[in-house]
Write a structure and sequence with these properties.
Bound molecules: 2-phosphoglycolic acid
Number of helices: 12
Largest sheet: 8 strands, parallel, barrel
Strand order of the largest sheet: 1-2-3-4-5-6-7-8
Radius of gyration: 17 Å
CATH architecture: Alpha-Beta Barrel
Structural class: alpha/beta
Number of strands: 8
CATH class: Alpha Beta
Number of domains: 1
CATH topology: TIM Barrel
Helix content: 40-55%
Length: 257
C-alpha cells in the first residue's frame, strides 16, 4: 500500500451468495468486529437484486455498495441486463467488470470489458477491472505479457481524468477460490508491472494514483503480508468476504504502515 498517493480499498465479491435476508445479520456481525477507525474504503459487491438492501444496511458502517456486472448498452431491448444508469440510480458506487468467471462462463472478451468500463465511467461508477493469467500462461512465462495486454485493452479510449476513478484488480485465475494464493512476491511483481503499463500510457502521476488490488484466496491469515507490498493497494475478496469476522480482519490489516 502507499496511502500517500492512492486509496486503499477492500472490496468483497459475494458472487452468487448471500440473501437479502442475511444482509442485516451479516452487517451486525461485521460492525462488531470492524476496527473503530477505518484505514481503507470498504466495498461489497452483491448480486444486483440485493444492492438496495445492502445500501440500507451498509450506511452505518460506511460500506459502499458495488455490483458484479453491467451491460455495455445504455438502455433498450436487452432482456435480463442491467445498465450503468440503473445501477447509478439506486446508488451503486463500484462495479466489477471482466471477472474471470464472466470471461469464462459468459464469453466476455477484452473489448466487451472495455465497453463496460466506459459505460460505468460515464455514469460516475468506478469500474473494478479484473485481469489475471491462467495457470498454463504462468507456467509458460506469459503472465506479464498477457496481463499487460488485458490492462491496455480494458483502458483503451479511457482518458487520464476517467482513469482516476478506475480500480484494477489483479486476480490470477489459478488462485481464485482454490485456496492457493499467489505469494506476496508474485502478486507484487505483477501489480508493479500493471502500474508500469499504466505509466507508459498515462505518465507517472496518474499511474501513481491508481489503486491496484490483489484477488485470489486472500484471507484473514495472508492479507497483512499481501497488503504490505508497495503496489498492492487492497484486495478483491471472494470466499473470505462471506464471513464477517474474516472480512473485518482483512479490513483491519490495512492499518499497517
Ligand atoms: P476468492 O475470490 O477470494 O474466493 O479466491 C476472489 C474473486 O474471485 O474475486
Amino acid at each position: 500500500m502507499n496511502r500517500k498517493y492512492r486509496k486503499t480499498i477492500i472490496a468483497g465479491n459475494w458472487k452468487m451468495n448471500q440473501l437479502a435476508s442475511t444482509i442485516k445479520p451479516f452487517m451486525e456481525e461485521l460492525k462488531v468486529n470492524m476496527p473503530r477507525t477505518k484505514t481503507c474504503d470498504v466495498v461489497l459487491c452483491a448480486p444486483a437484486i440485493m444492492v438496495p438492501a445492502l445500501i440500507r444496511a451498509g450506511k452505518e458502517c460506511k460500506i459502499a455498495s458495488g455490483a458484479q456486472d453491467v451491460s455495455c448498452f445504455e438502455k433498450g431491448a436487452y432482456t435480463g441486463e442491467i445498465s450503468a444508469t440503473q445501477l447509478a440510480d439506486v446508488g451503486v458506487k463500484y462495479c466489477i467488470v471482466g471477472h474471470s468467471e464472466r470471461r469464462q462462463y459468459h464469453g466476455e472478451d477484452d473489448m466487451l470489458v472495455n465497453a463496460k468500463a466506459k459505460a460505468l465511467l460515464e455514469k460516475g461508477i468506478a469500474p473494478i477491472i479484473c485481469v489475471g493469467e491462467s495457470l498454463e500462461q504462468r507456467e509458460m512465462d506469459l503472465t506479464m505479457e498477457y496481463v499487460a495486454y488485458q490492462v491496455k485493452a480494458a483502458l483503451a479510449g479511457i482518458d487520464a481524468t476517467q482513469l482516476r476513478r478506475c480500480v484494477i484488480a489483479y486476480e490470477p485465475i489459478w488462485a481464485i477460490g482454490t485456496g492457493k494464493t499467489a505469494t506476496a512476491e508474485q502478486a507484487q511483481e505483477v501489480c508493479e508491472g500493471i502500474r508500469a503499463v499504466i505509466r507508459k500510457i498515462y505518465g507517472a502521476r496518474p499511474a501513481r494514483a491508481v489503486s491496484i488490488l490483489y484477488g485470489g484466496s486472500m484471507n484473514a491469515k495472508n492479507a497483512a503480508e499481501l497488503l504490505a507490498q508497495p503496489d498492492i493497494d487492497g484486495g478483491l475478496i471472494g470466499g473470505a468476504s462471506l464471513k464477517p469476522v474474516d472480512f473485518a480482519t482483512i479490513i483491519a490489516a490495512t492499518a499497517q504502515e
